[in-house]
Amino acid sequence: MAENFKTKIIVNPKSANGRTLKLWPQIEAIIHENLTDFDHEFTREQHDATRITAESLKAGYEMIVCIGGDGTINETANGFFENGKPIKKDAVLGILCMGTGGDFIKTAGIPKDFKEAVKVLGGRHTMPCDIGHITLQSHAGKIVEHYFINITDFGMGGDVVYRVNNSSKILRGFMSFLWGIIRSQLYYRNKTVELEVDGKPIGERKIKNVIVANGQYFAGGMRIAKNALLDDGQFDVIIMGNLTAWESLKWIRKLYSGDIVEFQEKVEYFHARHVKATSIHDVMIDMDGEQPGRLPATFRVLPGVIKMCR
Questions:
Q1: pLDDT tens for each residue of 252-286
Q2: Can you list the domains of the chain with their CATH numbers?
Q3: Pairing of the two strands 235-240 and 267-272
Q4: Is it the case that residue 305 has pLDDT exceeding 60?
Q5: pTM confidence score
Q6: How far, in Å, CA of 273 to CA of 299, rounded?
Q7: Is the dihedral of CA 177, 181, 184, 189 positive or negative?
């Protein structure tokens, strides 16, 4: 058995506000110190990481390593599937984070420091990782399906992501998302949704945001689901109810600490394997830092379907 996996490295040169491309010669040299059997390919446009991943797995690569932010990680994870099934059994995902937020790696225990993170890629040690599957309405009005590895939310989160992704991100992760949250508080109006959890209707809710979490962190370091595990076969679902802008700002520290669930008057918490949401309003979805569409949507967990390099 080979010491390392046969590896394809997918590089998003625009990640980290363009720093990844500038640093690539140094990054490649560091990778060569830990991996021998690999080649790489740059993404050029949206969804390239998904396409390259699928093509590489079909070509016999054992591990796909993505270099980029949470959006690139999400695109790469989507490339592990085709026609609703994994392309290759036992395929491995590796992550070197160079993004604005860097949220997923916090739950996964992957070092932010590049030299330390590369060391994880050597050898053949992996851990199982759950994946979320979602069907939703695209911006074109079609029902489409996606996969997510970290967190999907709907409500104000979609508005925040729109603002962050349409700014320069010069403030980097934490401040970019914090500024996006503050700006959204001024304009976003809470929406009414119908929710179903594990096949049981829980009724109508007026919501600020609903979070369906596989990982613990999103929005540039916000620990929204501090008890979430990547391999427990279930989502952590947080329903942030009809909070006012003042209440949201007042409790923003608890959003980052993971203690927002203490606000029991307006915040509900569930474990679930399946969630369904509909609304008469235009409710936007944030999926691992990207905005694929809007409600209606259904979410289901796929336990341990990806192996992650650890």
A1: 788 888 888 778 889 999 999 999 999 999 999 99
A2: 7-124 (3.40.50.10330), 132-304 (2.60.200.40)
A3: antiparallel
A4: yes
A5: 0.90
A6: 8
A7: positive
CB atoms within 10 A of CB 87: 16
Q: Which two tokens stand for residue 103?
A: 């949220």
| Higher per-residue pLDDT: 206 or 2 | 206
CB environment 272-286: b (16+ within 10 A), e (fewer): bbbbbbebeeebbbb
Q: For residue 63, how many C-alpha atoms fall within 13 Å in the half-sphere facing its CB?
A: 30
Cα dihedral sign, 161-162-163-169 = positive
Q: Which two tokens stand for residue 203?
A: 């009724």
Q: Which amino acid is at 151?
A: I
Place of tokens 């307006």: 266
Query: Per residue in 105-159, pLDDT tens?
Result: 999 999 988 889 999 898 889 999 999 999 999 989 999 999 999 999 999 877 7
Q: In which residue are the tokens 């996969």 written?
A: 147
Three-state SS annotation for 247-283: HHHHCHHHHHHCCHHHCCCCEEEEEECEEEEECCCCC
